[in-house]
Amino acid sequence: MNTELSWGSKVMRIFGKDKTAALGITIIIVTALVAIFADWLSPYGPNSAADTAQRLAMPGTAGHLFGTDDQGRDILSRIIYGTRTSLFSSIVPVVISAVVSMCLGIIAGFFQGRIGNSLMRIMDVFFAFPSVLLAIAIAAILGPGLLNVCIAMVIVRIPYMTRIVYTDTIQEMQKEYVEASRAYGMGRAAVMFREIMPNVLPSLIVYSATLCGVTIVTVAGLSFIGLGVQPPTADWGLMASEGQNVLMQGDPYVTLFPGLAIIILAFAFSTLGDWLRDLLDPTQK
Amino acid sequence: MTKADVPLVKVDHLIKSFGGKRSLFSKSKSIHAVKDVSLSINRGETFGLIGESGSGKTTIGRMIMKLMDPTDGQILYDGKSISHFSKKEMKDYRSKVQIIFQDSGSAFNPRRPIGKQIAYPLIKNKKYSQDAAMKEVYHCLEMVGLRKDFANRYPHQLSGGQRQRAGIARALVLHPEFLVLDEPVSALDVSVKAQIVSLLENLQKEFNFTYLFIAHNLDLVAYFCDRVAVMYKGEIVEVNTAQQIFRHPQNKVTKKLLGSILTLDGSLNEIKSEAYEINSIN
């Protein structure tokens, strides 16, 4: 997993100690591999509709392990292809907003006074809107598409993450090691990103990991109202929402399988977050 | 005037107030942490700054360290005002003046080994190579009585006394001449307290350090300090030699502080002998 031996063995040790994390990380690795090799793994193409006689085939029907949806497409194949958009739309916006929030939050917390206050008041304006509503508005302005939805998710998440980094930074600023580093002449940027950042990183990581799961669902919601992933594309969120048409007509599995996939991936991300926090904590070694 | 006549640190009509800024809708009430304080610290002496919590003593220490800027008044170091230092002079000042904190638990970044943190200013400010810096770090750790391998430990792996020693090592590494000791022993238990005090004393003898010893009570002060200033609500109420403060306290705040020491009659000799006793434990 890692080329450097000492680091690799450290990873393995914590990996072995924490079984839940091991499971979560395995899920994420498997999902990533599935996304890469979807073309080989999938029994059918994502949009290849079988003959109409095969519509809404029950799970376990010959050739369709998870059944087919209302257009006769193989659900298993669509879940396999769906890993691509789901992984992308959960990881990319969260990582980008985490990086931006880390910088903004530390700067705001470090320069409290005028800079910090103006930054945080701008963030407060975003808090005034429910985040899904805000995401809808932004995605509507930018136009439909996966990328635009991701941009909307980045903008929506930044205020929350910045708030977390900001409060943590203020707490760290009161500790004496920050004063000590200034007392021996460390520059401002170094104090912010060398001293304070490693200490606010863990809580941001845990929060981000939780958000990865939430983001899949939110993007699914945006896709459902036509702003995100566009219909024929295989996407877990979109599949779950499309299945609602037949949910009450005796075919719940059309929603069930993509829904389960989302839950499993969301769980994997949150255990990954906890594991990363432990990995970064020197008192856990 | 010869160099010896100029006090090393001269604090001149120093004022620090917090708050009092106008915001959008209101003017916050300002608090005067330090009101018109003047004092001078001579080369090689240990100057005690005593006062109950909230009396502004730590604020003065922070301002001398230039971790905070005064609202008014000035601080002269070796005859020069520290607020008018050039960038180069400031860099110089940062290595000449160092601080030792009360809470050793938060004085080190919990996420990096002690040695790396002590070595950082050497590598960054003084352009030492990694090896040369670590050699210096080992030397400083040795001076404060810690083994070499403590350099690789994380702060949480050290006891309070060991961390305080490491804190002293961090201050020593830049070869300072003036040290602000901000209640360096008040968080430690009695036997460790005595060890740290005698370590500070030995270092002073060896390097001719000047100390500003900040404390909230008179415990150890008679033994450790040459001169003492007593602060109350941001003002200095009494300055005198440690002996005079103990034998003939003038101000009632001083008398009250003296009264809180755990000796029967508060006479200097008794306190001194007690302090020596504590010291001889190690």
TrEMBL record, chain A:
Chief location: membrane
Transmembrane segments: 21-41, 87-110, 122-140, 204-229, 256-276
InterPro entries: BP-dependent_transpt_permease, MetI-like, MetI-like_sf, OppC_N
Superkingdom: Bacteria
Locations listed in the record: Cell membrane
Keywords, comma-separated and alphabetical: Cell membrane, Membrane, Transmembrane, Transmembrane helix, Transport
Membrane topology of this protein: Multi-pass membrane protein
Domain ABC transmembrane type-1: start-end pairs: 87-273
Family per record: Belongs to the binding-protein-dependent transport system permease family.
PANTHER family named in the record: OLIGOPEPTIDE TRANSPORT SYSTEM PERMEASE PROTEIN APPC, PEPTIDE ABC TRANSPORTER PERMEASE PROTEIN
Name of the featured protein: ABC transporter permease
Native species: Sporolactobacillus kofuensis
